[in-house]
Write a structure and sequence with these properties.
- This protein is mostly helical.
- The protein is elongated and about 55 Å long.
Length: 125
């Protein structure tokens, strides 16, 4: 499904933006530093279409491309945040001076804990 913002879905007044943006003849604002892009078609499920339509109807975005750009930017930020967290966890594990536990010992502890919880749950029921 290809969505285009209708003229009534676009905001009437354009906010003042920095010189980073340029307004094209079509009235669409583009980031001056963005590389030219090639149009692609994507298929959205009903739920995603409703979300996209809601965002366009809110007037916050001028086009489906703007919504997708923002969504992809947020996804990239989330991924970068996760990567940083994982990097910190790995460095902390490497810096941990405690001796590693053999996997058999770890599994025995986990199984014993599960057995205790199951027995406690049966007593309560």
């Amino acid at each position: 499904m290809r969505l285009r913002a209708t003229p009534e879905a676009r905001p009437k007044a354009r906010p003042a933006f920095s010189r980073r943006y340029v307004v094209l003849d079509s009235g669409v604002m583009k980031d001056r530093h963005m590389a030219p892009s090639k149009a692609i078609n994507i298929e959205l499920g009903a739920k995603q279409q409703a979300i996209l339509r809601r965002q366009l109807d809110s007037g916050r975005y001028e086009s489906a491309s703007d919504v997708m750009n923002d969504a992809l930017r947020l996804m990239s930020e989330r991924d970068a945040s996760f990567d940083e967290w994982l990097r910190e966890e790995v460095l902390a594990a490497i810096a941990d001076k405690r001796p590693p536990s053999p996997i058999d010992t770890v599994f025995k502890r986990v199984r014993a804990r599960i057995t205790r919880k199951v027995k406690a749950a049966k007593r309560v029921a």
